[in-house]
Design goal:
CATH class of the largest domain: Mainly Alpha
Helix content: over 70%
CATH superfamily of the largest domain: UbiA prenyltransferase
Order of helices and strands: HHHHHHHHHHHHHHHHH
CATH topology of the largest domain: Tetracycline Repressor, domain 2
Largest sheet: none
Shape: globular
Oligomer: single chain
Radius of gyration: 20 Å
Number of helices: 17
Number of strands: 0
Distance between the termini: 46 Å
Strand content: under 5%
């Protein structure tokens, strides 16, 4: 049995894990490696990719930068989260704001150190990334359109880091990125609909608050329609192996999303739709394995 002090330490650990959203970071790390193996460096031997120390440092720097980003985002959104996510907010508050900020600076310092192992260009890249996350959390997040656009760009930036490392400019990579960017943009807008109550209280100028729920739903409809462009290209113009199954399934899920969004009125409805888009993103990460299920055997 754990004593009182041990329980307190364990609770603080879970609180910090909740703040940095460790589960999201794990998915991004997996996604970066799968993207490297199956898409960006598909012509390289498997061992050369998996045991590439430079790639490992880029992935690690991305992970700690994102963790720091979640901390600073939590710092600025603490009051809003009390309204939108009261249970999670109570858990997050077990760690003091001073401790969070100290951890934030330590993580950013570690990110720069890790990037320095790769190159000076990597240091510049991650320094700009760190600043971009802070500036988004501090200023841009409260602005309609630019806040959503910046959030989507910052979300795919870790993949841009490994894209620049491998310098693979195949057209199919940009089509994959377009699909991911559109889904993330939809998720951000759906999250704004979900959090409209807290955003109103904290004077956030989000799209649903400025232009209304109907306009937001129309934008989501347009974004859903736009996903058909990269989906068509990936299904009929490029070779994606058995990953075609994912794109057919995601199209069906987006159709269901589209029907549901116009019927949704409550926070619970929007939460379900938000989680649907998260499911599409996470499923897409593991569906990368379907591009070539024999790749491991052929490239050892």
């Amino acid at each position: 049995m754990l004593n009182r002090k041990q329980k307190h330490i364990l609770l603080k650990f879970f609180s910090l894990f909740s703040v940095v959203r460790g589960y999201n970071i794990l998915i991004i790390v997996i996604a970066q490696y799968l993207t490297s193996i199956y898409i960006l460096a598909h012509n390289k031997p498997l061992k050369q990719v998996v045991f590439d120390l430079n790639l490992f440092m880029i992935v690690l720097a991305s992970a700690v930068t994102i963790a720091g980003g979640y901390i600073i985002n939590n710092f600025y959104d603490s009051e809003k989260d009390l309204i939108n996510r009261p249970i999670k907010s109570r858990l997050d508050r077990l760690v003091s704001q001073n401790t969070k900020l100290s951890f934030y600076f330590v993580l950013n310092f570690l990110a720069v150190i890790m990037a320095s192992y790769v190159s000076f260009k990597a240091v510049i890249f991650f320094s700009i990334y760190i600043f971009g996350i802070w500036f988004y959390s501090h200023k841009l997040k409260k602005q309609p359109f630019i806040g959503n656009l910046t959030s989507a760009i910052l979300t795919i930036t870790p993949f841009f880091a490994i894209f620049m490392y491998y310098k693979n400019f195949e057209a199919v990579i940009f089509v994959h990125a377009m699909f991911l960017f559109l889904i993330i943009s939809m998720r951000e807008l759906t999250k704004d609909l979900e959090n409209i109550k807290g955003d109103l209280v904290q004077d956030y100028k989000t799209i649903p608050i400025i232009y209304g729920e109907k306009a937001s739903k129309l934008m989501l409809t347009i974004l859903s329609a736009l996903t058909l462009i990269p989906t068509y290209l990936l299904l009929f113009k490029y070779e994606v192996g058995h990953m075609y199954l994912y794109f057919y399934l995601s199209t069906l899920l987006l159709l269901g999303f589209l029907i549901s969004i116009w019927r949704s009125k409550t926070k619970t409805h929007y939460l379900i739709l938000h989680n649907t888009l998260k499911f599409i993103i996470v499923l897409g990460v593991f569906s990368i394995l379907l591009i070539d299920i024999t790749i491991v055997l052929h490239r050892i």
